[in-house]
Amino acid sequence: MFDSLAQRFSQVFSRLRGKGALSEAEVEQSLREIRIALLEADVALAVVKDFVQGVREKAVGEKLIKNIRPDQLMIKIVHQQLVESLSHPLQDLNLKNKIFLLVGLQASGKTTMCAKLAYLLKEQGKKVLLVSLDIYRPAARQQLEILSKSIQVDSLEIISDQSVNQIIQQALQISKNYDAVIFDTAGRVHLDDQMMKELVGVQKTIQAGEILFVADALMGQSAVEIAKAFKEVVPVSGICLSRIDAESRAGVALSVRKALDLPIKLMGVGEKPDQVLQFDPQRIAGRILDQGDVVELVEKAAKVIDEKEQQRQLVRLQKGIFTLEDLALQLGSLNKMGGIKSVLNLLPGIGQVKSQLKEGEFDEKVAGASFKKEMAIISSMTVKERRSPAILNGSRKQRIARGSGTSVQAVNQLLQKYEQMHKMIKQFSKMKFPGVGPKN
Length: 440
Hints:
Helices cover 57% and strands 8% of the residues. It has an eight-stranded mixed β-sheet, sandwiched between helices. Helix 14 packs across helix 17. It is α/β, with parallel strands linked by helices. Helix 10 links the parallel strand 6 and strand 7. It has three domains: 84 residues, Four Helix Bundle (Hemerythrin (Met), subunit A), CATH 1.20.120; 193 residues, 3-Layer(aba) Sandwich (Rossmann fold); 135 residues, Signal recognition particle, SRP54 subunit, M-domain (434 Repressor (Amino-terminal Domain)). The two termini are 49 Å apart. The radius of gyration is 26 Å and the shape is flat.
């Protein structure tokens, strides 16, 4: 997410390292590079001008130029400007609202975003009903039904030959049984008068408290003009960005937020319904500046590892205990957190690490395949072998290789990795952990 812009900004800041002070000439040079980086990220020209001017004013008015390293100062200023550019007074999604209406073009990710919103509301303890109004595409209605089942929320029964108004009335009649009702409107390949007229009628009937426009991150600047068209006919209250994980540039995020004066409320960061984030300007600014997102990393870990298991693992680490079963547990947790790509992209400085590696040295797909292979190898071992790897002789390794569909070489590579980790764990166990372990 935002890899390209993060790397460009990193280059700007790297050039300032080692400088004695942030001179006016250095500021202007940095601003030129920032301007180019934003334009290459497909940020609208008017938004780029405002952003660069904001950075210039902050840099000129900065009082601590002589006391802070130039690169750190520029990072601080750009971070502040990013947060300001991405923030909005009505930033937070109104989770107390009952009726939600999602609008957008066909294939923008609107139906999937409905499921993502339903997932978030369900996580808040709300009973949710999903309703498809797309009578023109039966497959879209079926897709929403399938997605609703995957996250265990209700969807309105599909009845053939119903009109949009009949579907709405059916949904409103049972809405009293739900905390939230999410309406997925019909999409079109292009904007047309019939689509907008229908949308006006839908909103007049349901009176949605949140009307969210779904913008595909791959649409670039065209998303701004399309969103404006929707905003002219219904009171759009916020933006949802879909497929932001597939777009390394940040242009659409900056452009739609500033050009429309609307808050970005949700981001789809994957295809699955649970791969969604509420938009946080501070955290997004951190990602764009290659500072990672440790908050999300902690949240991901908390979802897949319960507190008792965390405590058990910490006690084992303190004692220097680490078997192949523990390694399998760690690999499984990593997979539940979205895999190595998902985790690495949340670490501070990972963008700079990627840029320094030669092509092919950091292949996330290869790394993911390696994890699957390692899990297969461990699964092919007996319980005794996983707990006591020292007993793995040649014949045992051959059996494990056959069972996992790998090679003896792959088994040996896993064991070497395990031994390295085991040594680190033993060193780690020599550290003192207050409040952990047996009490006297």
